[in-house]
């Protein structure tokens, strides 16, 4: 396993992704520590501007850094048996940095102290060259330019003068010495910027305390290929939530050894007892993986491909709807039993969801779609508030439709999907949101210790989406697209403003218009939304009502959640604007429209 013998700690990893990543890392052989212990040797980084990262990069030569966004890729690569190592996924030195390289004057430079820091000697000839410095940055994950913009992360200069210096001060962009680039390059990770900021009094610049150790160390990087282990897929699905140990010191040396089959037997569930599966449409490797998971949970698999009267389930890939090939491969012997529902056709999500929930789960997630024509114009979609197995499956649904799943919400995104159960107390009394299929909308939320922080994170995303005029919907909207488009030649987008899924649709129609134009491009001139007939524009029935939001109590959540927000993660900006369901029409307008429709139908 690629993370065997690694002790892993997080810094600034989004709270809504931690539990799943912890499970994935433990499946890959790693051991998660919530605190930075002396034997931690991997730091998973969500943001470099944290005390934990700065301490490690300055004082811990035994730690390597991995960007949190790489964890799902490592896990998927391992499952797919791709011959890659952890080294392929390490955090790049200048990743996520936009760097402006401005005035470089060696005569105004500080003392380089080459005797004290001999590694700088090989870089001296490049230290004041724009071309060389920009090449160092660009080749190590960053973006170098000589143009200063407000979005720039760092201004590199040796002088405290000039327009770019003045504007960097105005925009609160730190101006640092080019030594920061070469020292970070030598360290193999970006050093704290604060240690390289130039002032009139600057005489020495250094942001690392372990140069001697770095020159002597043997790099602690794994060369183990990302070869999957069958026995731990079952383990990750069963132990999907991280359970902290009684003590961070309760580690035995034996835990570093490879797990044995007897260990898996001790945790196996008899979930699939009495069930027999025929697996169709998967690769040989995937069949082997599925077979081991099923049999380790007391199920049976037909491995002979001969007609079998005892088959209860036919298992095909969830994305078989893109080619329809798996349905065609089902032997005719089973078709009559399928029509009589004596045999059920399911996808691999049935296996995953059953193991996750520790019971047999026959639901809409587990039923394969017949055919889906994906979009060739990617709609950019973000999600918030989901956890567990849904957090793994929803991005796959988004990509199945040809849309683009985005982990980060910004003003360019088209849609935000939230887990409405996170706000159930506020929404249940005055909303149609919970009338949709129960197995779709009843997604779990986080455990009690995490829920408050998750609530803050999702609330912030909702407030940001409102500010940027991004529509907010429940998961029902995504599922309705799948249902309506199933078996159709074109993708069908339901009415965005339907109160069965619409949580927020801005009165400013710029963003929804873009979404509707997107739908028309998908379907051509014959595009029609499944909505009511054209009606007069809604009128405001309440003075100053902008979003149809509900009034809230005067009590603040700041005092209750301050401790949850105060950690090493980036500071959370709390906006107390409540996440309530709102649509383009207020309730009075909806009632008027319903009356008008009734009259029209008469």
TrEMBL record:
Biological processes, Gene Ontology terms: DNA replication initiation; mitotic DNA replication checkpoint signaling; mitotic G2 DNA damage checkpoint signaling
Pfam families linked to this entry: BRCT, PTCB-BRCT
The BRCT domain, residue ranges: 1-81, 89-198, 267-352
Signal peptide range in chain numbering: none
Keyword Endoplasmic reticulum: no
Skewed-composition ranges (Acidic residues): 250-259
Domain of life from the UniProt record: Eukaryota
Keywords: Repeat
Renumbered residue ranges of the record's region Disordered: 244-263, 558-588
Keyword Acyltransferase: no
PANTHER family cross-referenced by the UniProt entry: DNA REPLICATION REGULATOR DPB11-RELATED (PTHR13561), DNA TOPOISOMERASE 2-BINDING PROTEIN 1 (PTHR13561:SF20)
Protein known as: BRCT domain-containing protein
